[in-house]
Amino acid sequence: MIHSSADARRAAKRRLPWMVFDYIDGAAGAETGAARGRAAFDDLVLRPRVLRDVSSRDLGAPVFGQATKAPFGISPMGMCNLSRSGADMMLARLAAREGVPLGVSTVASTAMEPLIEEAEGNAWFQLYFTGDGTGTFKLVERAKAAGYETLILTVDVPEVGRRPRELRHGFTMPFKIGPRQFIDFALHPRWSISSLLAGKPDMANFQMEGFEFDRKASRAKADFGTLAKLRDMWPGNLVVKGVLDPKDARLLKAAGVDAIQVSSHGARQLESAPVPISVLPAIREAVGPEYPLFFDTGLRGGEDVVKAYAQGADFTFLGRVLQFAIAAGGEEGLAQLWSVLKDETSITLAQIGATSLGHNQLRGAISVGHPGR
Q1: Would the annotation count 154 as a binding residue?
Q2: Where does FMN bind (predicted)?
C-alpha cells in the first residue's frame, strides 16, 4: 500500500533495475541542485488558520479554460514504459479520468497518436528542438494532425546535462543492452520478464519518421527566431517550459507565448541552477497577475503543491513520483498515489483555512523560515 511518494520511491528502488531507477531518480552533477530544491520547499512555512468554515473544499484548477479534478497534471517524461510496460497508457487513462493534461514527451515510449486518444484529448505534446529543426517541425505537424491543441517547447536543454548515476550504468537512448545491463536485469527478474514479454521500450515517435533520435544531439541552435517560426506554425496554445529567469519570462510573454512553465527539468540539467520554487514569485511579478504560469520540479506531496500555488503558480505538474508509483504497483499503485496527493492537498487547504487554491485564498499563507521563533 502506498501512503506517500516516499513509499512509492522505496518500492520502486527495490523492484527496478539499478540502471532504470537511477535514470528516473537521478539529477545533474553531484545532485546538490536537487538537494537545494528539497531544502527550499522545506524552508517554506504555511500559516495555519483556525475557526474558518473549510468543510467544502475545491481542488479544481482550470487550465486554458478547461476544468480539472486535480490541481496537478502529468509532466512530459521520456521512456516511461521503462518503469513498467504500459506505463504511458496508464498515465493517459489517469489524465482522462481526472481531466488533467498529460504531457506527451518527444521521446515517449508510446506514439503521440494513441496517447491523445487514450487520454480522451487531455494531452499536450512536448517538443525538443534538435539539430537543424527538420525533424522537429515534422513532429509539430504530426501533433497538429493528431488533434493536439497545446504544444510545450522545452528550452532548458541546449546540451544534455551530465547525470553521473545514469552514465555509470551505461544508460542510452535508444535503449541498448550489453553485458552490464544483462546482469542488472537478471537480478531483477520480475521487471525483466514483464519487459521482455512487452518488447523493448523504444522512442515510438521516431519509428514513423524513419530516423533515429539522438538524445545527445545538440539543441543549441534554438533561439527566439526558432520560437517565432514555431509560433507562426502552431495555432493552439504554446507553452515554454524550463524558464528560471524573470527577464526571459518577460521576453517570452512579449513573443506571444501563451504560458510559461517554471522548471529546472527536475534538477537534471544545470546543477547550480536557481531553485524553481524560490524564483517563482519573481517570475510571477515579471509576467503580471493574470498571465498563465505553470510549475514543476521537486513536488513530492500535497503541501508542496499548495506551496507552489501560494508562490504564484496557476497549475502544477508531477513527474517522477508517478513513475515510482507505477513501478511499485502498476495502475493500482498510480491510482493510490494520485489519491494520496489529492488528499494531502485537500487536508493542507483545511489546515491553513482555505477552501481552494485561488491566489486570493492563499494570500499571506506562506513565508520563508519559521516566524514566531
Answers
A1: yes
A2: 76-78, 105, 126, 154, 241, 296-300, 319-320
Q: Report the alpha-carbon distance of residue 250 to residue 287 in Å, rounded.
A: 6
pLDDT tens profile 40-94: 999 999 999 999 999 999 999 999 999 999 999 999 999 999 999 999 999 999 9
Give kind and range of the element (H or E) at residue 294.
strand 293-295
Which of 17-21, 27-31, 71-75, 163-167 has the highest average model confidence (pLDDT)? Answer: 71-75
Please, are residues 44 and 288 in contact by the beta-carbon 8 Å criterion? Answer: no
User: Was 233 annotated as part of a binding site?
Assistant: no
Instruction: Give residue 259's domain range.
Output: 5-362
Residue 349 has pLDDT above 50, yes or no: yes
147: Cα separation from own chain's centroid: 21
30 contacts 198 by C-beta, under 8 angstroms = no
CB-side neighbour CA atoms (13 Å) of 361:
22
Question: CA 366 to CA 356: how far, in whole Å?
Answer: 15
C-alpha to C-alpha distance for 116 and 320, rounded to whole angstroms: 20
Residue 110 belongs to a domain: yes
Task: Quote the mean pLDDT of the chain.
Answer: 92
Task: Pick the catalytic residue from 3, 169, 188, 265.
Answer: 265
Sign of CA dihedral 281, 124, 241, 11: positive
- Would you say 219 is a known binding-site residue? no
Residues 6+ apart with CB under 8 A from 254: none
What's the pLDDT at 372?
45
Half-sphere exposure of 316 (CA within 13 A, CB side): 32
Residue 367 sits at φ, ψ, to 5 deg, of -150, 165
265 is catalytic: yes
User: Has 128 been labeled as part of a binding site?
Assistant: yes
Q: Is residue 369 part of a domain?
A: no
Q: What is the CATH number of the domain that holds 45?
A: 3.20.20.70
250 within a domain of the structure (yes/no): yes
Number of structural domains in the chain: 1
Give domain status of residue 218, yes or no.
Answer: yes
Q: Report pLDDT for 340.
A: 98
